[in-house]
Give the backbone structure.
Amino acid sequence: MKKITDEKLAERIALLEQAEADTGQLSLHGEAELACLRELWGYRESHGALQQKLDAMAAENAAIKSVIADYAKVKQDFDDFDGDRRGIAESLCEAEDALVSGIKTPATDTYLNSVRAEGVDMVAEAIGNSAAKLKVGSKDWKALKSIVLTLVNCAAQLRSGTHDTADKAG
């Protein structure tokens, strides 16, 4: 199967768009082709963005595995040590604390926050649907509207990383 490059895809879209601009319309086949090509272009852009996020998370995972392997080696060396262990155990605990606190996973945190935000959005939508069944302006409607606005704000904060739980893994 012949591979369609981004360049060729962009050229074909531009050609069809120019033909549409020149003639005022495309044939049914041309319209269908242009719609399909635009859809394909959108998928390619989405795929590229998702691949970048996946690559960032994979790099974080590799770094974590490396840190764990390094710690395991230090721990094994400590377990195999026959000499005076005083002070070594304290150093090992300090090293462990430094390793755990030093693990940073911004791509993973961003992804998890987006998942959390989707959940908050789902709850907001469900409450909004319940509010829609009430009389506009009623006490219950106002209360539900306030809850929905709070949830929407919370979801936005999660997505931006400014919510107080945004940086916590869970």
About this structure: The two ends are 44 Å apart (CA to CA).
